[in-house]
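The material for today's practical consists of a large collection of protein records. Getting from the letters to the tokens is the skill we practise here. To make this concrete, we reproduce a full record directly below:
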Amino acid sequence: MLITLYRTDDAGRIDYYTITDRQGHLFAPYSLTVSWGRALSSGREKSYVFDTRTQMDAKLRQLIRTRVSRGYRVLYTFFRNHDYDHLRPALRRVSVS
């Protein structure tokens, strides 16, 4: 799963926020990696680890809700299977048209 959000400030600068589950974690069965900054390939990064899928899904929904409330919109999404079908309607509402 890959979700990239963006927002533009008053000066025209773009902030990116990317959420992925691509990087597994050695000590936890579920994890999310979040990166943010002015460039897609650089910036800050944080990893979240979870014992259950339910915990991870709750954090994922919270991260998306927080960013959308701060003015972010969806730039790109990729889901390799149907594990995240519950997110598609919410992400579609804030997608770039």
